[in-house]
Design brief:
The structure is a single chain. The chain is of the alpha+beta class and 131 residues long. It is 29% helix and 44% strand. It has three helices and six strands, in the order H-H-E-E-H-E-E-E-E. Strands 2-1-6-5-4-3 form a six-stranded mixed beta sheet. Strand 5 and strand 6 form a beta hairpin. Helix 1 packs antiparallel against helix 2. The longest helix is centred in the first third of the chain and has 21 residues. The radius of gyration is 14 Å and the shape is globular.
C-alpha cells in the first residue's frame, strides 16, 4: 500500500468507526475505543471548529462521554485530497455529520506521520462550513 492509500484508509476507517461510536453500535466498546485511539500519534493535536485545542489525552477522555449519545448521527467524508512525502502526508477533506436532520459540515486538513504499515494522525485543523 502506498502512502496516499494509507492516509485514505485511515481517514475512511476513522470516520466509519466514529459514526459507530456516536451511534453506540458496537458489541465491543473497548475494542472500538482501541481502534479509534490507536490511529493517533501520542503527540496528536487538533484545532477544532470552535478554535479549541484538543490533545490526545483530551480526546481520549472525551470519547467515553459520547458513546451512543447520537444514535441517528451519520458521518461521511468527501473530496479527499492527499499530498505525501516519504514520512509525512497532508490530507484535506470535507466531513459531513447529520444528526436529526441537522447538517454540520467542516473542512479539515490533517498531517499524518507515515511508516511502512500505516498513517498516524499527527495534527488536525477543522473549520466550520456555513450552509
Amino acid at each position: 500500500m502506498n502512502n496516499t492509500e494509507k492516509i485514505i484508509k485511515e481517514i475512511k476507517e476513522f470516520h466509519k468507526n466514529i459514526e459507530k461510536w456516536f451511534q453506540g453500535k458496537s458489541e465491543n466498546q473497548d475494542g472500538l475505543y482501541t481502534k479509534l485511539i490507536s490511529g493517533f500519534s501520542p503527540d496528536f493535536r487538533m484545532i477544532n471548529g470552535n478554535g479549541d485545542t484538543v490533545t490526545l489525552p483530551i480526546l481520549s477522555e472525551w470519547l467515553p462521554t459520547v458513546f451512543g449519545k447520537f444514535p441517528d448521527r451519520s458521518v461521511q467524508v468527501e473530496n479527499i485530497e492527499i499530498n505525501t512525502s516519504e514520512y509525512h502526508g497532508l490530507a484535506a477533506y470535507t466531513e459531513i455529520q447529520i444528526t436529526d436532520g441537522i447538517i454540520n459540515k467542516r473542512k479539515s486538513s490533517a498531517v499524518f506521520l507515515l511508516d511502512e504499515e500505516r498513517a498516524l494522525w499527527f495534527h488536525l485543523i477543522e473549520k466550520w462550513i456555513s450552509l
